[in-house]
């Protein structure tokens, strides 16, 4: 994502791809303009939150008119660097890693997995879904050949910090971490962690809380 003139909160940054995906859908449907209230109702995001998010990037809309869909689409495409491909490394080709390789981000986003590392790979390397897979001990030798900027980490918790240290030392600037452990990284490296068990527990809590509120209102 390109650097902005003012610091954008992380919560806003995480919503930008959601806005882009939805605006892209509107453009494909031929819609020319939309208000923050219409966006709010369609995306289930408070309209005040949408206006605040958009305000970090200047005057994206006009009072009484709303937002021009094509202008928003072009803005988010440039802001999220959708025209510039980002090469990813996948570290850990287990069940989750295999799913990523079969999906590959390039089909729907501007990112693509170009190389993977897994301890079960053949010593000379192997190919899967058009992606070369090497053993982790070859990381320092092979990774520089692929112009990798980011990595997806799907390794056991015990191996996550060591792999993170090695990736950071090789110049990787962003890590999407699926290992259930908090990672320490040097300044200039960003980590976004996704703990599937926590997400599931949060979903269960939300469902049960909705059920309780529904029973209370009867």
From TrEMBL:
DNA-binding region range list: 18-57
GO biological process, one term: response to redox state
Record Pfam families: CoA_binding, Put_DNA-bind_N
Job of this protein: Modulates transcription in response to changes in cellular NADH/NAD(+) redox state.
Protein name: Redox-sensing transcriptional repressor Rex
Subcellular location: Cytoplasm
Record Gene3D superfamilies: NAD(P)-binding Rossmann-like Domain, Winged helix-like DNA-binding domain superfamily/Winged helix DNA-binding domain
GO molecular function terms attached to this record: DNA binding; DNA-binding transcription factor activity
Positions with a binding annotation for NAD(+): 92-97
Alphabetized UniProt keyword annotations: Cytoplasm, DNA-binding, NAD, Repressor, Transcription, Transcription regulation
PANTHER family per the UniProt record, alphabetical: REDOX-SENSING TRANSCRIPTIONAL REPRESSOR REX, REDOX-SENSING TRANSCRIPTIONAL REPRESSOR REX 1
Name of the gene this protein is made from: rex
Segments forming domain CoA-binding: 81-182
Superkingdom of the organism of origin: Bacteria
Subunit structure: Homodimer.
One GO CC annotation: cytoplasm
Protein family: Belongs to the transcriptional regulatory Rex family.
